[in-house]
Amino acid sequence: xxxxxxxxxxxxxxxxxxxxxxxxxxxxxxxxxxxxxxxxxxxxxxxxxxxxxxxxxxxxxxxxxxxxxxxxxxxxxxxxxxxxxxxxxxxxxxxxxxxxxxxxxxxxxxxxxxxxxxxxxxxxxxxxxxxxxxxxxxxxxxxxxxxxxxxxxxxxxxxxxxxxxxxxxxxxxxxxxxxxxxxxxxxxxxxx
Length: 192
Ligand SMILES: Cc1cc2nc3c(=O)[nH]c(=O)nc-3n(C[C@H](O)[C@H](O)[C@H](O)COP(=O)(O)O)c2cc1C
Known about the structure:
- The protein contains 4 helices and 12 strands.
- The protein has about 190 residues and is mainly β.
- The two termini are about 25 Å apart.
- The structure holds flavin mononucleotide (FMN).
- Flavin mononucleotide binds near residues 34, 57, 59, 86 and 88.
């Protein structure tokens, strides 16, 4: 396959798809939600999770106040909600009202937990560093909410029960289903 090699990086989307999630935050009685695709686990011990947020986001202002946030993982059927909170500004509109977002009680933080999420990580901010035009926010996961029904005995997402919401960039969303899952034991494969 012919490859193009370029130093003209532009907005790079070659590493997508990414799981699209909804970050929620609450400070001083004000709450907000935004879509995030630039997020990652960082460490098991302590459990750390990172997310890259542009400082101009209203969410970031609230996050600086509360120093707490939650990352909510929603199924593909709720991708339109991800697009909604990722296409509107919380300074102008109450997204929870406008998009009829249902909440559940957080355990350790003030961040709203989304009822439609199959899993949510409640995080306390432990670091925030500027990298280029975004801030890398690191949170310690202090509580995990999840629907135990959607996990296999291995603790992985059961693709027969949940279709994750993947973001391809350019407003395109996709998912994967159980037929695409392969078990490739790394020990077995390393011996070959
Ligand atoms: C699928 C998707 C993923 C996004 N990922 C991020 C992200 O990781 N970081 C970020 O700063 N903005 C991201 N955005 C943009 C914000 O969600 C968007 O600017 C939102 O309107 C910010 O809301 P706020 O101003 O109420 O905070 C994403 C948008 C979409 C639709």
